[in-house]
Amino acid sequence: MTQDQIPSLLMLMKVILFSILSEISQEVGLNFLSVLEIHSFF
Fold first, then answer.
1. Which of 24, 26, 28 is nearest to 16 (CA)?
2. Residue 20 to residues 16, 36, 39, 42: CA-CA distances in angstroms?
3. What are phi and psi of 35, to 5 degrees?
4. How confident is the model at residue 22 (pLDDT cuts 50, 70, 90)?
5. DSSP character at residue 28
6. What phi and psi, each to the nearest 5 degrees, are found at residue 3?
7. What whole-number distance in Å separates Cα of residue 42 and Cα of residue 36?
8. The whole model's pTM is what?
9. What's the superkingdom here (predicted)?
10. Using CA atoms, how far apart are residues 21 and 32, in angstroms rounded to an integer?
């Protein structure tokens, strides 16, 4: 693997992680976000 391939590989991993996290947050994140919002008020 060359040095040029490493940044694009990291970007790809970030995109994959982000898509997985967004999938999870659509199912669980609504409850999680509301809990965070409640905690941020206190």
1. 24
2. 6, 20, 25, 30
3. -65, -45
4. confident
5. I
6. -60, -30
7. 10
8. 0.49
9. Eukaryota
10. 13
Buried b (16+ CB within 10 A) or exposed e, 21-41: eeeeeeeeeeeeeeeeeeeee
Residue with tokens 């409640």: 38
| Structure-token match 């994140």, residue found | 29
Q: Answer for the pair 32, 25: CB distance below 8 angstroms, yes or no.
A: yes
With vertex at residue 18, the alpha carbon angle to CA 12 and CA 23, rounded to the nearest 5 degrees, is: 130
More confident residue, 35 or 41: 35
24's tokens: 């999870």
